[in-house]
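TL;DR need structure tokens for one chain.
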Amino acid sequence: MKVTIQNLQQWKQEKRPIVSLTAWDYAIAQLLDQAGIDLILVGDSLGMVALGYSSTLPVTLEDMIHHTKAVCRGVNRALVVVDLPFLTYQTNITQAIQSAGKIIKETNAGAVKLEGGYPAMIDTVSRLTEIGIPVMAHVGLTPQSVRILGYKQQGKTIEAQEKILNQAIALEQAGAFAIVLEHITKNLAIQITKTLSIPTIGIGAGNHCDGQVLVTADLLGLSEKLPPFAKPYANLRQNILDSVTHFSEDVKSRQFPES
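>> reply
TL;DR here they are.
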């Protein structure tokens, strides 16, 4: 059966961990879905793992829609959530509605995700959910703010912890159905998870969140550089390099094809 927002919220109450990974094309999405992943995020991290950018900032709405369509073709069970890319929702609420609405109308995605918890973003989440567009929130390290935050762990001071906690509470009250906690301290993630009634999905936030997400390219060992909280479960980068090199050698020595 198709995973729903209600399933995620029920699993939080049952303390059943939620499993999430990113996807950027049909083949990866199909494999994740067959493996039983609950939530597939079409993250703007595809800007780095699929498009070769140095950050998520250059990714366009058209990029996200193109990749989301491919991902959705490979998914039967998982809930697909799509990142709204940089400067497609921050200008004003009208822009956010148009961008989120375009994703929902043109793809088979179930929800959108946006970053930040400042007051204007609370209003945006409230309006989007009010008109029927499900929203996953995201606080802590927000990659679209890399020019200001860098990639450092967030929530280290008491003031920073209070700010992030208050943002999370406000986002839940605005209607977010779940929230990503990225690269924050373990104790802060525990506090937020206990405080909120919606699921928390951690990435570099310790093992007490309601679920966990990783960039699939990091998990598979495809990324050139790994964040400190990622765990590679394979080394496909080396496997692919070895296989392609072997093929090239066979062609040059006329061992492939065999006849």
